């Protein structure tokens, strides 16, 4: 995976500045910065000096020295003007984050953490009402995108460095977590309306990356299982990685070629790993393959963080050019109060984030989606992909007929070839038997002991060709059988798809729920709605708290307060947050009860869920099987035609060989007849022998009958022993 092509990254446009009553040189250097790290340095210095300026001169909203400041809003292109120096700071900070995102999306893959830090500081220290592109929702989206891309850069480096598989899996899982947060923001209706047309493009890319990096995480979990020789776990992790990668490929439609190239590369890696692991386990290790949900989930390892922004760091901002203007006592006290507010916010956010983490982990373990908890709607209609196949077959009514005819033709040619080869084999066996008999008569081969006599050259050639054709035929026979099995498997499905839609719908499984089951579902959905309501209320209270802290400026009070009374003033001012803190505490405390109720409801839902899952699995399997049958039709017809062409050619060769075999057998038979006739001519007549005593006694009787010895069979006439020289006569 270290050579996998890089995925593209999202980067943000810089805001354009409008009118601002500043020196032209300052405006030029701060607005038209180069798109490189020197530009980032310039923006940081300018931001720091603005901080020093606003702490001395009343240029804030509705203050004496406030001047109009105009910037272009990114998404609408409108010019937004505020009489507030903090607006200038906020826009510069936004551009700092955007420029870092632009640099981070380049080949060097750096600077994403800096971008996240800029947007985090902007979210936590400035009002969100200046413009749409700096709203709380958009900044949260930007932060999660930048953190996700920073973690993605770290993942690339980890794979290049060949880090341990488990660490790479955790890094990849954290990429998924960051992108899931970004995706939640993109799916928010309010955020979508703010982003406009780019929302869909970003959402498609982020959703694709979620599945892609989840596949990478499970790929490396499978590699870890391989290292630990847990071969069953290895198979399920690689299978899960393959499934998630297939989902990423579906979502990657319309993405640039770099994305497609990365997906193809990763598919080669994961597909090869899965096929090898499954084959090894099936034939060698035979380990049970566990269900994925029984294995420990991969917990992300957040190894990147938003780099903090310090507007008063002299190493970044340079020397304070306004140091000699006015005393800083009041502003120092205000900074102390700001720190108290920040501490309060950190304490509250720590509690919220802890509860959110528990809630997210709980919901992830439950795997309950309110929108698809029953998904009964899907069973009421034929899925579009199946409708498409039915429509395609409706204009091709002869599909099944053509396939059946093709099968029949192929079977006929196959049978003809087999008959020709059998006849050739029978002729060869008969010839061999006749040749053996001849050899036995001639006394050249002892009966039942000799090996088959060598055939004639013509028959030897026929036998050799026949063996070759038989071998080819046997191999093709297996392929032919498999092709017929495939045809028989798909013909029924093709008939179904060619028929009325009512039959297709009836063939798809659908769940049957009792009234009790329906009640269980309704109760579960009600509690899931409560969970979402709790989430929304928590986010709203958090937003209210942040806005209160942003608007809370007691600088005027601090000017007239004695230094010894500062602590008391801080305590009194911070009491204004007590009420909203109480509401948040109540919301957080309610979580335990809500989750307990959800646990109970989920226990009751288990049986229904299992039944629905089984039906959904059968439904998906049926749909996939029908689609596969449609897609297999052209391939089957092609292979059938190839089979016919192959067997037609083989039939011609077998027919020629049969004629050749007949001719060779006739020639061999004629040759045997000639040999037999020659051998018979070479045989001497039977030698006479002395008459047996019994026959000698009967000779007088024969003489009495008047018969001549020539009238008797030679075998029955036994002559007396003759001298050697007379025997030839």
TrEMBL record:
Pfam families: ALIX_LYPXL_bnd, BRO1. The keyword Kinase does not apply. Residues 414-444, 524-551 form a coiled coil. InterPro entries: ALIX_V_dom, BRO1_dom, BRO1_sf. It is found in: Cytoplasm; Endosome. Residues 27-359 form the BRO1 domain. It comes from the Eukaryota. One of its GO terms (cellular component) is endosome. CDD domains: V_HD-PTP_like. Signal peptide: none annotated. Its main location: cytoplasm. The gene is Ptpn23. GO terms for biological process: early endosome to late endosome transport; endocytic recycling; protein transport to vacuole involved in ubiquitin-dependent protein catabolic process via the multivesicular body sorting pathway. Keywords: Coiled coil, Cytoplasm, Endosome. Residues 675-715 are annotated as: Disordered. This is PTN23 phosphatase. Gene3D superfamilies: alix/aip1 in complex with the ypdl late domain, alix/aip1 like domains. The keyword Cytoplasm applies.
């Amino acid at each position: 995976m270290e050579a996998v092509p890089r995925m593209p990254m999202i980067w943000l446009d810089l805001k354009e500045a409008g009118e601002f009553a500043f020196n032209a040189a300052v405006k030029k250097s701060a607005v038209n910065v180069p798109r490189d790290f020197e530009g980032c340095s310039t923006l940081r210095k300018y931001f720091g000096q603005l901080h020093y300026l606003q702490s001395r001169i009343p240029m804030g909203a509705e203050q004496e020295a406030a001047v109009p400041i105009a910037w272009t809003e990114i998404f609408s292109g409108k010019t937004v003007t505020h009489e507030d120096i903090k607006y200038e700071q906020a826009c510069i900070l936004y551009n700092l984050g955007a420029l870092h995102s632009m640099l981070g999306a380049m080949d060097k893959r750096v600077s994403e953490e800096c971008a996240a830090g800029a947007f985090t500081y902007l979210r936590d220290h400035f009002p969100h009402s200046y413009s749409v592109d700096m709203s709380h929702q958009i900044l949260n989206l930007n932060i999660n995108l930048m953190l996700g891309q920073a973690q993605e850069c770290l993942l690339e480096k980890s794979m290049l460095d060949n880090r341990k598989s488990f660490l790479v899996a955790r890094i990849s899982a954290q990429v998924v977590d960051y992108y899931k947060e970004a995706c939640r923001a993109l799916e928010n209706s309010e955020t979508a309306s703010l982003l406009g047309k780019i929302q869909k493009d970003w959402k498609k890319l982020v959703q694709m990356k979620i599945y892609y990096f989840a596949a990478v995480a499970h790929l490396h979990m499978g590699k870890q299982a391989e290292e630990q020789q847990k071969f069953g776990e290895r198979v399920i992790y690689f299978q899960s990685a393959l499934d998630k990668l297939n989902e990423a490929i579906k979502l990657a439609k319309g993405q640039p070629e770099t994305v497609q190239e990365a997906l193809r590369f990763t598919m080669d890696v994961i597909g090869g790993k899965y096929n090898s692991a499954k084959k090894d386990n099936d034939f060698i290790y035979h380990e049970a393959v566990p269900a994925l949900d029984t294995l420990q989930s991969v917990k992300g390892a957040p190894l990147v963080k938003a780099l903090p922004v310090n507007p008063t760091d002299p190493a970044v901002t340079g020397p304070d050019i306004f140091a000699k203007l006015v005393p800083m006592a009041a502003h120092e006290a205000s900074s102390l109060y700001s720190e108290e507010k920040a501490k309060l916010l950190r304490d509250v956010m720590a509690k919220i984030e802890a509860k959110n983490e528990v809630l997210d982990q709980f919901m992830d373990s439950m795997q309950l989606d309110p929108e698809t908890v029953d998904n009964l709607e899907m069973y009421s209609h034929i899925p579009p992909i199946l409708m498409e196949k039915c429509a395609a077959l409706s204009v091709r009514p002869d599909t099944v007929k053509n396939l059946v005819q093709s099968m029949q033709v192929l079977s006929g040619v196959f049978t003809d070839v087999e008959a020709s080869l059998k006849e050739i084999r029978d002729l060869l066996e008969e010839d061999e038997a006749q040749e053996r008999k001849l050899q036995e008569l001639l006394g050249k081969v002892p009966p039942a002991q000799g090996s088959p006599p060598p055939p004639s050259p013509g028959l030897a050639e026929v036998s050799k060709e026949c063996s070759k054709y038989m071998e080819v035929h046997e191999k093709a026979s297996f392929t032919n059988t498999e092709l017929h099995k495939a045809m028989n498997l798909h013909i029924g499905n093709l008939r179904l798809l060619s028929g009325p839609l009512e039959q297709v719908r009836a063939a798809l499984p659908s769940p049957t729920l009792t009234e009790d089951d329906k009640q269980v579902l309704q109760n579960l959905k009600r509690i899931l709605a409560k969970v979402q309501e709790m989430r929304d209320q928590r986010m709203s209270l958090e937003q209210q708290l942040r806005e209160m802290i942003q608007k809370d400026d007691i600088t005027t009070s601090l000017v007239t307060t004695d230094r010894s009374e500062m602590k008391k003033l801080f305590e009194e001012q911070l009491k204004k947050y007590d009420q909203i803190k109480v509401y948040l505490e109540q919301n957080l405390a309610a979580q335990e009860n809500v989750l307990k109720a959800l646990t109970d409801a989920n226990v009751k839902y288990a049986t229904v869920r299992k039944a629905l899952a089984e039906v959904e699995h059968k439904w998906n399997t049926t749909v996939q099987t029908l689609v596969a049958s449609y897609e297999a039709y052209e391939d089957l017809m092609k292979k059938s035609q190839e089979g016919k062409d192959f067997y037609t050619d083989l039939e011609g060769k077998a027919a020629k060989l049969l004629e050749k075999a007949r001719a060779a057998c006739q020639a061999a038979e004629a040759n045997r007849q000639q040999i037999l006739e020659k051998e018979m001519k070479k045989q001497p007549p039977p030698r006479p022998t002395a008459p047996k005593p019994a026959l000698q006694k009967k000779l007088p009787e024969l003489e009495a009958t008047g018969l001549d010895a020539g009238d008797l069979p030679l075998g029955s006439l036994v002559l007396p022993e003759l001298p050697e020289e007379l025997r030839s006569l």
